Amino acid sequence: MDWATQVLDLVDAREAEMTSLLTRLVSTPSVTGSDTENALQEQLAKHLAGLGIEVDHWQVPLAETVAAHGFPGFEVPRTEAWGLVGRLPGQGDGQSLMLNAHVDVVPPGDLATWTAADPFSGLVKDGKVFGRGACDMKGGLVAALWAMQALKDSGVPLRGDLLLACVEGEEDGGLGTFATLRRGWRADACVIPEPTSLDLVPACAGALTFRLRIPGLATHASRRTDGVSAIEKLWPVQRALKELEALRNADVDPLLGRWPIAYPISLGHVHAGEWASSVPDLLVAEGRYGVALDETVEDARASFEDCIAAASDADPWLRDHPVVVEWWGGQFASG
């Protein structure tokens, strides 16, 4: 029997164990930035060590890491974070491969929309596992872990190292992978088993989180014409962003051509006003801005800021009270 068949047979023979591990991981509510996120890393470190796999489990020096050049940002404050890498050493001079999977999940949202009463139940039904993170990406994490386990149990002689990086903070910035690289872990290639319906994704747009502060002039609603509604000043800004989005997607790299909009600009959170009977004097809008392939983060920011400045200059009120752009949260380059 060849090595590939032997390894695949080992995986297939343990489907029930894989499902059991996945349900346990899903039932651990490792919401990004929570203590449970750290606890899951400890759980996985013990699991890997129990399989006889070399383990590097370390506390991330947060202050030093956040201050480092190129840090991709974060949206959830943390007082503690942990890195984890499992290693199967190669027996020759072959190239190394890293499998990279994140352990954190986003909050479950409105519980009434869940099929299972508990979004962290790990419910198994009709051959599927349900729960927050089952798809993104604890299923991928378990697949990577069992691939490593099957390779170890088969005794296949690897020519190069096989690494499994379990990382925190993917959902809000990329802290875990950044910290893993700073730890010194490297590989000749990396496979990230994100849920892509088994499509290969060899290129990825970047994404920058932005905040806009749009000023108005407060007054009582009964005299609204004496003031300037910050809400109404969002409209020209939004039109300018739509025009910028169209311009930036007019000529897209073929690697991203399958998407209707390869480099989207989207507002995800808008807040204005504090009282229903007052004209709001400030609108704060937060969103996500796509970075094109081969475009630097600096150039992408400059294009965005120029667009907002032009929109401000074209409006009589905003000309003298320009929109302020802030960059915060996740700041991902394209790749």
Structural overview:
- With 335 residues, the chain is an alpha+beta fold.
- It has 9 helices and 13 strands.
- Helix 1 packs across helix 5, helix 2 packs across helix 5 (134-154) and helix 7 (234-248) crosses helix 8.
- The longest helix has 21 residues, at 134-154.
- The protein starts with a helix and ends with a strand.
Structural class: alpha+beta
Largest sheet: 5 strands, mixed
Oligomer: single chain
What share of residues are in beta strands?
15-25%
Q: Which SSEs are present, and which pair or pack?
A:
Layout: H1 3-12, H2 15-26, H3 35-50, E1 54-59, H4 62-66, E2 82-88, E3 97-102, E4 123-125, E5 128-130, H5 134-154, E6 162-167, H6 175-183, E7 189-191, E8 206-215, E9 219-220, H7 234-248, E10 265-272, E11 278-279, E12 282-291, H8 297-313, H9 316-320, E13 324-332
Parallel strand pairs: 3-6, 3-7
Antiparallel strand pairs: 1-2, 2-6, 4-5, 8-12, 8-13, 9-11, 10-12
Helix pairs in contact: 1-5, 2-5, 7-8
Keywords:
335 residues, alpha+beta, 13 strands
Summary of the model, kept short:
The protein is α+β, with helices and mostly antiparallel strands and 335 residues long.
